[in-house]
Amino acid sequence: MKDIYKILADSNRRKIIKILLNGQLTVNEILSHFSIKQATLSSHLAVLLEVGLVNVSKKSKFRLYSINKTRLDEFVKEFNNEFQKSIKAGMDMEFIDIRNMSRR
Predict the structure, then answer these.
(1) What CATH number is attached to the domain comprising 68?
(2) Stretch 69-93: mean pLDDT, rounded?
(3) CB-CB contact of 41 with 27 (8 Å)
(4) Is the pTM of this model over 0.85?
């Protein structure tokens, strides 16, 4: 899971995910949203494919990229759980601090 955090730290990769949420696209269709070279975009897509956030299928001579909704949903769920734990841990610490302060 930590690898996905590192991968999504890149704004271009987050933008690819956002674009693909609207449906399947070819590399050139995705590229039209960027001002980067096709080789750079292909590298980003390869990384997203490697961690399973993106799927690719072939339709005649084109490769169509799409979101792996199952994997993205798993990531979002785990992220939310970790975030909730962090918030709860922080709130518990504040509660302990306030309680300790009131005893002084």
Answers:
(1) 1.10.10.10
(2) 82
(3) yes
(4) no
